[in-house]
Amino acid sequence: MSDELFLPPENQQPPAPEAEAKGSFKLDLYFWTQALIGALVFLILTFTLVGRVIGVKGSSMVPTLHNEDLLLLQSLGYTPQQGDVVVLRKPGFPAPPHETAPIVKRVIAVGGQHVRVDYDAGAVYVDGVPLNEPYIAEAMTPTSGDMSVLDVMVPEGSIYVLGDNRNNSSDSRHVALSTVDTRYVLGRALWVVFPLSSFGAIQ
Predict the structure, then answer these.
(1) Which helix (H) or strand (E) is 125 found in, with range?
(2) H or E element that contains 85
(3) Is 160 helix (H, G, I), strand (E, B) or coil?
(4) CA dist list (Å): 165 to 61, 65, 92, 126, 186
(5) CB 78 within 8 A of CB 96
(6) What are the DSSP calls for 8-62, one per residue?
(7) Active-site residue, 26 included
């Protein structure tokens, strides 16, 4: 009997290596396309429902945030709360030509609360209670000049903000900023999205 009788039918021949590679490439391309579409939809929903991305300028929030960090903000329906890191703009502050730069600070107190910055004790008191502040860069040192708003009752609809790098921050202690109307708040900083080495939620 001839060996030809045992050859598999033509339509059962195993696929050529070139065909296998082509099929694998198409499958990879399909999955990558799906992943990119999913990421695009996620970004569109994030920017629509959450807020915007804003860059940090300066070192006033070190060690929590650093110069050139990119932050994802929650803007829609946000109400400032004590302890939040917020981004705001206030006309005339800082001085020109930087008055349009976003200001990134931490909310120390909200409307109706009393704030007292005590350099001798090295503490910030809200309603008579010292804050536990593990996020600050170093112990506070006394300031002078325009940094004199150290004992204040925060008006309703306003907030008192400080930088985490307390000794290198122009914030609500400065007479030109002082307490800030919440209408100047652009949103709460939720995540560092760039650089990737710092990616993560903001505490």
Answers:
(1) strand 123-126
(2) strand 85-88
(3) strand
(4) 5, 10, 22, 19, 21
(5) no
(6) PPGGGSPPPHHHHHHHHHHHHHHHHHHHHHHHHHHHHHHHHHT--EEE--SSTTT
(7) no
147: number of Cβ within 10 Å: 17
> CA–CA separation, 59 vs 48, rounded Å?
29
Residue 143: strand, helix, or coil:
coil
How many residues are given for the chain?
A: 203
The catalytically annotated residue of 24, 26, 105, 178 is 105
- SS3 percent helix, strand, coil of the chain, rounded to 5, is 25, 30, 50
Structure tokens at 193: 């999205």
Contact 124, 160 (CB under 8 A): no
Which of 59, 60, 75, 144 is catalytic? The answer is: 60
CA distance 65 to 137: 11
Please indicate whether residue 22 is annotated as part of the active site. Answer: no
- Hey, how many other C-beta atoms are within 10 angstroms of the C-beta on 168? 14
Q: Are 81 and 87 in contact (CB under 8 A)?
A: no
Instruction: Report pLDDT digits (tens) over 99-115.
Output: 678 899 999 999 999 99
Reported pTM: 0.75
3-state secondary structure of 157: coil
Helix (H) or strand (E) holding 193: strand 185-194
pLDDT tens-digit map of 24-59 = 777 777 878 888 887 766 665 555 555 688 899 999
